[in-house]
Amino acid sequence: MQRYSKEFREEAISLSDEIGPKKAAQQLGINYATIIDWRKKRKTKEKKEKSTEEPKTVEELQKEIAELKKANDILKDALGFFALDRKK
């Protein structure tokens, strides 16, 4: 079994994105299934990276929601204060 460098794999995947995996495999002289496997692994890796980013986004949104709720409470209190002041 031949081992390929990370750079070679990345270039092969890029080439397969441009011209298709079958033509890329023929041009590079490697097995078609090898390129397909590399592409699947890349897709899996990208999904994992996206899934690790999502909790950060959710946490940021939850913080923003909490801040907005506080701001709304302050505005409600101020509205009540000014409404009482107008009645006098």
From TrEMBL:
<dbReference type="GO" id="GO:0006313">
    <property type="term" value="P:DNA transposition"/>
</dbReference>
<dbReference type="Pfam" id="PF01527">
    <property type="entry name" value="HTH_Tnp_1"/>
</dbReference>
<dbReference type="InterPro" id="IPR009057">
    <property type="entry name" value="Homeodomain-like_sf"/>
</dbReference>
<dbReference type="GO" id="GO:0003677">
    <property type="term" value="F:DNA binding"/>
</dbReference>
<dbReference type="GO" id="GO:0004803">
    <property type="term" value="F:transposase activity"/>
</dbReference>
<protein>
    <submittedName>
        <fullName>Transposase</fullName>
    </submittedName>
</protein>
<dbReference type="InterPro" id="IPR002514">
    <property type="entry name" value="Transposase_8"/>
</dbReference>
